[in-house]
Write a structure and sequence with these properties.
The structure is a homodimer of 252-residue chains. Chain A contains nine helices and two strands. With 252 residues, chain A is mainly alpha-helical. In chain A, α1 packs parallel to α9. Chain A starts with a strand and ends with a helix. Chains A and B meet through α1 of A and α2 and α3 of B. The complex binds retinal (2 copies).
């Protein structure tokens, strides 16, 4: 497989954009931690950690991408896949660490009380680990049937997870102050809307045809995962920070 | 295309100057955040973030420049463009992130009140995103007509943005303490004067002739963008910090 110069540049610039968004959101949140009250500080620090872990993985992905698709003879030539694999493992390792932490920061900012938080995480975290573990074998295969089978298996814990989160976020809404209700409603929509991008991006390469079966599927999948990562980690982390700040101000 | 040894060194040193100014302004502002009152701290942290994002991009630009224009046979030889493109995408990704944040820090330091700030940013941020998105296709083409067309389209949101900012900065002047009026007037001039450098630098390569059509256009464009970035981000961030400090002292 190969990538045209334009497609290479698009993916390359998106990876660099992801690094910039994730790295500097992480630093921004660390530097801003004292803007929130003590009881919300852990939620903000965990958000910063999620973004930092992801920034690390995007540095790896960026370098790996340069090695896998080295430049051709001229600036306009296509980039041919080299003898170095483009390793999707980085993403799955990243998700394996960041998805549980994202669940943790969400539950932390709701301030549901110790027992209720624990019970909730006890459902959510194993489901998320299962979702990612089942998705990986499907991601690295080039065949359609196993990709669909593993994808479907992975979707079972995914739907369970979304269901539990949605219900719990909705239930917790009653106990949240008026000023943050709107933001928490947005978080709820963001979770379903953004997390839903991942399984769709996963499917792009098997939609087939000249476009999706070739470079188009690869480019769209990378774009989907990268933009979803920026929004589900950096933008989401900033929203968590906002909720924490407003709640800190109100409880002052 | 190629660059003479002298032109290469000029651009190279300018990129390093930009890294130094942006990186250390960022660190200075982070380290100084506790010098300003709580309500202005976010403006200072956002200024630091803008400079950090830009420093990251100048590191990338610097390395990319070295790869695109490798040294010739001898110290005095021209640097020939290699098979690696000099990627102007970095600048546009940078602006896409930093211009909205510069608008945010400007509005934050004025302390206009929550509703008014939100309304203002709701006009400014989409206009800035549109300006940058429309400029990019023109930047990466080598042809004169599309460069002019995209540049003109990008100028429409640019003028709107400057107009709104200028009017709002002027309006807010009445409510600002005497001690910072002068600095805010300077910010107002800086915005128009510095941001106006970008569309001019954009035009250099198409002025044509032996000078602008060749290396001169490239060198002047890079110099224009880099110097404007240093002033519009680092010097501007320091001015914001100064306003925040004076206001903090007065409100103490
Ligand atoms: C359902 C499904 C998937 C879901 C992945 C998700 C939902 C990932 C979320 C990642 C996040 C939120 C990362 C940000 O930190 C896979 C594994 C692609 C495989 C196909 C089926
Ligand atoms: C009008 C115009 C442009 C304006 C660019 C501007 C105004 C960029 C400002 C960047 C800043 C302020 C960065 C600092 O953080 C482009 C895109 C060159 C394209 C040609 C037309």
């Amino acid at each position: 497989p190969s990538l045209s110069a334009g497609n290479f540049a698009t993916v390359y610039n998106l990876f660099s954009l992801a690094i910039a968004c994730l790295l500097f959101t992480s630093l921004y949140l660390v530097v801003s931690q004292r803007q929130v009250a003590k009881q919300y500080r852990n939620a903000v620090i965990v958000s910063a950690t999620v973004c930092a872990i992801a920034a690390y993985h995007y540095f790896r992905i960026f370098n790996n991408f340069e090695d896998s698709y080295p430049p051709g003879q001229t600036i306009d030539s296509a980039h041919q896949l080299s003898n170095i694999e483009f390793n999707e493992g980085y993403r799955y390792v990243d998700w394996f660490l960041t998805v549980p932490l994202l669940l943790l920061e969400t539950v932390a900012v709701l301030a549901l009380g110790r027992a209720a938080s624990k019970k909730l995480l006890f459902k959510l975290i194993p489901a998320s680990a299962l979702m990612i573990a089942l998705g990986y074998p499907g991601e690295i295969t080039n065949e359609v049937v196993p990709r669909l089978v593993w994808g479907t298996l992975s979707t079972i814990p995914f739907l369970y997870l979304l269901y539990v989160l949605f219900v719990e976020l909705s239930k917790s809404l009653e106990r949240q102050p008026e000023e943050v209700k709107h933001t928490i409603k947005m978080l709820r929509i963001a979770l379903v809307g953004l997390w839903g991008v991942y399984p769709i991006a996963y499917l792009f390469p098997i939609l087939g045809g000249d476009f999706f079966g070739g470079e188009g599927g690869f480019v769209l999948k990378q774009a989907g995962y990268s933009i979803a990562d920026i929004l589900a980690k950096a933008a989401y982390g900033l929203a968590i920070y906002k909720v924490a700040r407003v709640k800190s101000r109100l409880e002052d």
